[in-house]
Design goal:
This protein has six helices and no strands. With 187 residues, the chain is an all-alpha fold.
Length: 187
């Protein structure tokens, strides 16, 4: 489409130049004419040059905007990919720590690990990772009366992470309701 427009504008400009040239060849300047047609020709040529310069300026600005938009899109893609890579590496480290803390029986750190993993998963919107963390936390909430002891501060940190996930993952809302229902967090 743009090639057709460019060709039609080029043809228009060439036809105007040919018309002016043929007019100056056919009717040379004479003193009997009431007006100076060479002045008209120069005026038309000046107008054409002005239009061409304006068109060039417009094209330059348009190209600058297109390049800027493309660079911004590439940068956003790079940032998203970098964030995804960072989150995945942190998630792997947190899961390793979770397994170690679970074996050691340190459920304060397990809840902290899951709260941190939830936060990282919410940054990139990874619902599967959030659901995995929430399933582990559900087990802890359900076995809370047994051999699992978790401090009040750990539950509050977990609640903060769960609130960040509520817009993305319905299971986080369910777990928050379960925590509130069981009065795990004291006011």
């Amino acid at each position: 489409m743009k090639t057709k427009d460019s060709l039609s504008y080029s043809a228009l400009i060439i036809s105007i130049i040919i018309s002016i040239t043929s007019l100056s060849i056919v009717a040379p300047r004479s003193k009997t004419l009431d007006f100076d047609y060479i002045g008209v020709i120069i005026g038309l040529l000046s107008l054409i040059v002005t239009v061409l310069i304006g068109w060039q300026i417009y094209s330059t600005i348009n190209i600058k905007n297109l390049i800027s938009k493309e660079v911004d899109d590439k940068l956003k893609g790079f940032e998203k990919g970098s964030l995804q890579a960072i989150v995945n590496s942190q998630y792997v480290i947190i899961m390793r720590e979770y397994k170690i803390n679970k074996v050691l029986g340190d459920y304060n750190k397990v809840v902290f690990n899951m709260a941190t993993a939830l936060y990282f998963a919410s940054l990139v919107g990874n619902v599967d990772k959030m659901k995995f963390c929430i399933s582990i936390l559900n087990e802890i909430v359900e076995n809370r009366d047994g051999d699992i002891n978790v401090s009040q501060e750990s539950w509050e940190n977990l609640s903060d992470s769960l609130y960040k996930c509520t817009a993305i993952c319905q299971e986080s809302i369910d777990l928050l309701k379960k925590i509130n229902k069981n009065n795990i967090i004291q006011a």
